[in-house]
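Researcher: Quick test of sequence recovery. Tokens follow.
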């Protein structure tokens, strides 16, 4: 059976980023840039003051260190004239440095009377001046293709006057739940029925990871219903099903995929939970058949579908971030398949403690409760003692509260 490492390589190898589209900058947060962006002007455009204070010409400072103040200038109100040698101009942060000046003395470093100031401190030529082009010059590279646009990048592009950008769009993920036993949230489950909770779990997680989700409802364990609903999922960028991919009598999802032209890339990976996971393509479209058990569905979404989503979205490194942590308690090794344990991180000293969840059962909704990371444990690994340093796959930031068992 394929290992996780082999399987994730196959997933990433078979997916390319979605074609770029142009977006207004205000809609581009969290998306990945598909072009190189260069500056179209200098920033700052002119020398300006970094402090509230007085602008003067350093070389013309009188020995008395007392200067007449010849006027004022504020941000947005440039001073038109030239400041005579030996005089000062009252200047506020962000106002252009007037002609004849090269240095700013902060308000705190002078004593003022009616029309003069007296300097109380040593000063350095050019102090508190932000020079034209200090941040970037016309033509400088601002951001490379492949950069994710977080707040800092959005602010930089806005400051540079870039109002539209070419980005990879947020991938659209269609989710089909399968099973005769499922009812939608809001309905009262009858005997033998359960709520279609995977839809909600997967939708929430995929949205957190940047997807637009298209729910396709519930397909009954019936070939015609599966065919019909899967067809409508092909409009999405990625199609995902939950349930029906194992070896049970009613597990018909793979057959339904095949009728739509499915090219199987793998079925079954040596992992726990999530062994029956199915991956392939219909045309160029990635297709995941995730297992139905909630914790298996969630784990395979995390370790396969979210990297696939990030690759579609153009992230150069789509794999989950790793965080080093210490184990809070002993965990058993020795499994036949690579295990992924759900757990919570707690800040401890300069690092983190990883608390594996007490419940890890693939059928248990509560395995994931409070979890923000997954601990991979290699097949056949020895037991890991409390305090062992491990690398966990980070799903989201820890909650920042103390952990209580
Ligand atoms: P399956 O892989 O279809 O045999 O399903 C395995 C287990 O997961 C069964 O106990 C199903 O009832 C359960 N299951 C399947 N789909 C869902 C779903 N959408 N939400 C919650 N549980 C599910
Ligand atoms: Mg089923």
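Model:
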């Amino acid at each position: 059976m394929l290992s996780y490492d082999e399987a994730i390589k196959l997933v990433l190898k078979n997916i390319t980023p979605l074609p770029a589209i142009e977006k207004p900058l205000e809609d581009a947060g969290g998306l990945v840039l598909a072009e190189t962006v260069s500056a179209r002007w200098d920033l700052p455009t002119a020398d300006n003051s970094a402090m509230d204070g007085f602008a003067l010409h350093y070389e013309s400072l009188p020995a008395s260190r007392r200067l007449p103040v010849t006027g004022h200038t504020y941000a947005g109100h440039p001073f038109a004239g030239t400041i005579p040698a030996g005089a000062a101009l009252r200047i506020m942060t962000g106002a252009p440095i007037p002609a004849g000046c090269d240095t700013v003395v902060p308000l705190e470093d002078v004593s003022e009377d009616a029309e003069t100031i007296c300097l109380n401190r040593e000063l350095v030529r050019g102090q508190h001046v932000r020079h034209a082009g200090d941040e970037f010059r016309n033509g400088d590279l601002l951001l490379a293709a492949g950069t994710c646009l977080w707040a800092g990048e959005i602010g930089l592009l806005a400051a540079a006057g870039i109002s539209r950008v070419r980005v990879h769009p947020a991938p659209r993920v269609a989710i089909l739940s399968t099973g005769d036993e499922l009812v939608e949230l809001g309905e009262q489950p009858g005997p033998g029925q359960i709520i279609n909770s995977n839809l909600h779990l997967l939708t929430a997680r995929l949205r957190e990871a940047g997807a637009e989700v298209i729910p396709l409802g519930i397909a009954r364990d019936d070939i015609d219903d599966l065919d019909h609903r899967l067809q409508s999922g092909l409009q999405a960028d990625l199609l995902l099903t939950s349930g029906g991919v194992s070896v049970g009598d009613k597990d018909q999802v793979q057959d339904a995929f095949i009728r739509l032209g499915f090219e199987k890339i793998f079925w079954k990976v040596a992992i726990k939970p999530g062994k029956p996971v199915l991956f392939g393509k219909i045309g160029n479209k990635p297709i995941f058949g995730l297992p139905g058990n909630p914790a298996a569905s969630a784990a395979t979404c995390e370790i396969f579908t979210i990297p696939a989503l990030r690759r579609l979205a153009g992230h150069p490194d789509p794999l989950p971030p790793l965080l080093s942590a210490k184990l809070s308690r002993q965990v058993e090794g020795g499994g036949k398949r690579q295990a992924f344990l759900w757990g919570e991180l707690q800040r401890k000293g300069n690092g983190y403690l990883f608390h594996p969840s007490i419940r890890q059962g693939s059928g248990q909704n509560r395995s994931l409760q409070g979890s923000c990371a997954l601990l991979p444990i290699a097949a056949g690994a020895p037991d890991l003692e409390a305090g062992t340093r491990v690398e966990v796959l980070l799903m989201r930031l820890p909650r920042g509260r103390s952990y209580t068992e």
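The longest strand covers residues 338-348.
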